[in-house]
Amino acid sequence: MRQTELKKILKEVYGHDDFRFDQLAIIESVLDKKDTIAIMPTGGGKSVCYQVPALYSKGVTIVVSPLISLMEDQVRNLSENGIASCYLNSEQSYEQKQEAKQMLLSGEVKIVYISPEGLLSAGSLGFLQELDISLIAIDEAHCVSQWGHEFRNDYRRLGELKETFPSASFLALTATADHKTRVDIARQLKMQNENMFVSSFDRPNITYEIHEREDELKQLDAFIKDKHQYDTGIVYCLSRKKVERITDELKKLGHDAYAYHAGMSSAQKKKTQKKFNMHENVIVVATIAFGMGIDRPDVRFVAHLDLPKSIEAYYQETGRAGRDGEKSSAWMVYGLQDTMKLSMMIESSEASEEYKKIAKFKLDAMLSLCETSSCRRQYLLSYFEQKSEACNNCDTCLYPVEKVDATVDAQKLLSSIFRTGQSFGAGHVIDVLRGSKNNKVLQKGHDKLSVYGIGSDKDKKYWSSLLRQLLSESFVQINNWEYRSLGLNEKSKILLTKQDNFFMRKQKVVVPKKTMKNISESHEHGELFEKLRTLRMEIAKEHQVPPYIIFGDKTLHDMCQILPRDKSEFLLVSGVGQSKLERYGDEFLNEIRLYLD
Ligand code: ADP
Ligand code: ZN
């Protein structure tokens, strides 16, 4: 009975035929007044988990959300689906706040978005207590935990809410949380006997690719032109300077690229954000400052030119691709300098030793993902404690890595580290191995060592790669983080005394091409898809909203597949509810009719 009604809401408001993942179970848990934690991958549909109970129940639902731009997006999305909602935040004028409060008091709206600091400010808290609050949903809930990778101070006090609103249900939502973080979320929010729902972390529509850095710009350009010529994507870089350089270079190569980083003026940032939201075929080059506000579901690729600092960060950043479920790519290049740079940043930070230890552990795991010769997805999922089979949709599955016995070379490298006194970095150790005549080598008298020149048969690239793989499997350690000097450990001794062999990835010679189909190939009406996309853009411009607010790519593809001829058939299209049928049905049906005739 209740389930039928919930399903009816899902269809009428959102146009979805069925709940997916644990949506229904989560909604029922919330309606049964249980404390609930929902862990669902990005794009899994977390909003439905609190919006449907909000629409079903009496009373008001508070959604705690960290970012103003996200709130605005959500409110706009709901309004397109014919549901009134509002937000309370620091950027509103006094009058706007009063107006929102009035709508809440009159019962006109049932969902209010509010930031954590806004929620806990005395003024709002007093006001909200006057309302009948049925549900408090906390989005991005990993921010309450220090174990989460994005701890936010303003989330810490959310635990006080349980006392303030004793009769409300509590729902914590997040896309990334390992076991420790999950337990901590429950504790911080003072939940009791909570129901925990962990949906699969797998994002099957994302193809993972990780390559060694050679010429990153050339590699990136080739990747985009090869697979995502007409798509929108994000390119992440570590530093602001690099963001600006890469943006310029991409422009020169003919891409429509825009920069985004925290050092830009807010007007500049807004401009980039707007381009990204409102246009097709745009590339935003950014630091991680470009993140939480992104709600665009049809981002077709996320590229990393620098290594993220943890698997959680990598998963979250790449998760911004393909939220609509359509084929997308997560692509990255990495090199040894990345690990060094990040290690240095951790080491030189003011953080506690405990924190540094966690941070290094997380970085090591990230590096192992890069160096693994087995399925990348399998490694990612196992990091989140989820078992899976090899995926056949990542570079290592599609182009298996060949391994070669590199024990002898590994021994040469270890000896060079040992003979030079375990106090030099990678560059010098390799120079000695290759018999370089540079000043440093000669000054130190390292041209007299027995290891001098014993590795001159291989190039620098080979030795760096071998060293990186030895580091990733802890056959070498960093002795001094400041000078990045290398040293030996127990494991190195095992190799040196030939008690173990070392196999390394064979260098790839050819870069794989065309690993994925263009998404419009899933039906035979690519031409219609383009027409619908143009129509969507025109309507979006007219209404001054992003195209995806009108309809997502998935919905357009579904139209191409179903080819609806009238309104009742149009309702069959996934993502079409009553409200959107009335608003846009005629125009899209007309376009389809023209095409079919
Ligand atoms: P997130 O979990 O990242 O917050 P959203 O709530 O923004 O995800 O939803 C992501 C996309 O999935 C949206 O386009 C939404 O319309 C779609 N979606 C959510 N639930 C369903 C469902 N049951 N069936 C089909 N699509 C759904
Ligand atoms: Zn795989």
Topology readout:
Layout: H1 2-14, H2 23-31, E1 36-39, H3 46-56, E2 60-64, H4 68-80, E3 86-88, H5 94-105, E4 111-114, H6 116-120, H7 122-129, E5 133-138, H8 161-164, E6 169-174, H9 179-188, E7 195-198, E8 206-212, H10 216-227, E9 233-236, H11 240-252, E10 257-260, H12 266-278, E11 283-286, E12 301-304, H13 311-318, E13 328-334, H14 336-347, H15 353-371, H16 376-383, H17 395-398, E14 403-405, H18 407-419, H19 426-433, H20 439-443, H21 460-472, E15 477-480, E16 485-487, H22 490-496, E17 503-505, H23 526-543, H24 547-550, H25 553-562, H26 567-570, H27 578-596
Helix pairs in contact: 1-3, 2-3, 14-15, 18-19, 19-21, 23-25, 23-27
The chain binds adenosine-5'-diphosphate (ADP) and zinc ion.
If you had to describe this structure to a student in words, what would you say it looks like?
With 597 residues, the protein is of the alpha/beta class. It folds into 4 domains: 2-198, P-loop containing nucleotide triphosphate hydrolases (Rossmann fold), CATH 3.40.50.300; 206-359 and 377-398, Rossmann fold (3-Layer(aba) Sandwich), CATH 3.40.50.300; 403-505, Arc Repressor Mutant, subunit A, CATH 1.10.10; 526-596, Orthogonal Bundle (DNA polymerase, domain 1). Helices cover 46% and strands 13% of the residues. The protein has 27 helices and 17 strands. It has a 7-stranded parallel beta sheet, sandwiched between helices. Strands 8-13-12-9-11-10 form a 6-stranded parallel beta sheet, with helices on both faces. Strands 14-17 form a two-stranded antiparallel sheet. α18 packs across α19 (426-433), α23 (526-543) crosses α25 and α23 (526-543) crosses α27. The two termini are 44 Å apart. 45% of the residues are buried. Mean pLDDT is 89; it is low at 509-520. Bound molecules: adenosine-5'-diphosphate and zinc ion. Residues 14, 16, 18-20, 23, 40, 42-48, 297, 323-324, 552 line the site of adenosine-5'-diphosphate.
